[in-house]
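Suppose a colleague, Dr. K., hands you the sequence of a protein chain of 389 amino acids and asks what its three-dimensional shape might be. Before reaching for any lab equipment, you can write down a predicted structure in token form. Begin with the sequence itself:
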Amino acid sequence: MDSSKSQPRRAFGARLKEVGADSVVVAVLVGVFLVTVSRHTGFSVNVAITFGLFLMLAISLQLLLGFSNQASLAQAAVYGLGTYVSIFVETHFGVPPVVALLASIVAGALCGVIVALPLLRLREHFLAMGTLAFQVMLSTGFDHLNGLTGGVNGEVAPLAKLNSLSMLGLILGVDAVLVLGVRLFRQSSPGRRILAVKTDETMAMSLGVNVKAFRLAAVVVSFAIASAAGFFFSETAAFVAPDDFNLAVSLAVVASVIVGGKSLTWSALVGAGVYSILTGYTTNLPGLSVLILGVALIVILGYLPEGVTGVYSPAGEALAKFRLKRSAAEGTPVSRIRSGQDDSVPAGAQLGLAQDQGSEQGSDKVSGKLSDKGSIGSVVGAKPTEGAQ
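The predicted structure, expressed as tokens, is then:
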């Protein structure tokens, strides 16, 4: 088959696959809403709202991990900042909820600028330790700023709508927009540049990419989303306290994302689902949900380094190898499977088989692509990077 004709077909197939994944994500969110409406109990609505809010936090963290390899242990603190800002402007100035949402987003973005400027010099675990210090500072402020946060006694949210299905629908709708928006952004020119920064900062700089600006933008957008989640929390909770935004919550966000896996979309969904269910069923045992997540994190890091969503990969490769042996027994040429002409073998497994077989031709093609550094697309390649799939 002519390679020039097969490449557009593969590109169309990749786009079709992404559209299918987006449809499944939206279907999951719609299913959560419909199940909650059918049950319509205070417990089910509360669990669903927790799922929606935690999904926003997971997406905000995955933007850092998946696009720029930056880790943050301050998502809960920014979450609390958005909550307290929303309550303050609504109760003291009487602004409508839309203005309160904008105020929370602006507060989170400014917080991102303040944090990112001094910490952009740091890398890997040093950056995480810097955000940890910021988490501790904000948590301490929440405890002692009695006039703004109510201190350790907490703050009442007088305009909150408890167990509101309309608010649940709005939260899940925002989640769907964020998921789809992240995927579209990843395919855009700025998204590819950020992925190039993640792949190799030195190479990206040699191609004219402003690495510092893109890293700063990633932190600002991440914190803005986390702060917006705080606004929705203030609209659905009658009472907020500093314990709702402590370090344990930030660690739970990190743990849930890692447990979910490297896939940007599915890890956020899986992590949010696990956290909301654990929190809902362990309300009378504070801290138990975080303990269970910690144990799950240890197991995942030890036995499933790619997370729960990466389980399908070894299973697909095992299935492909079994079909390869069966095809060989039936006289089917191995080259058909390795070239992707056997539709019964998953594409990912075909790639794994090709690597296992030590295909020299494939290695030559890959090295040829890597040698072409004339554009950002040559750095990122046709497929998104591993951490932002």
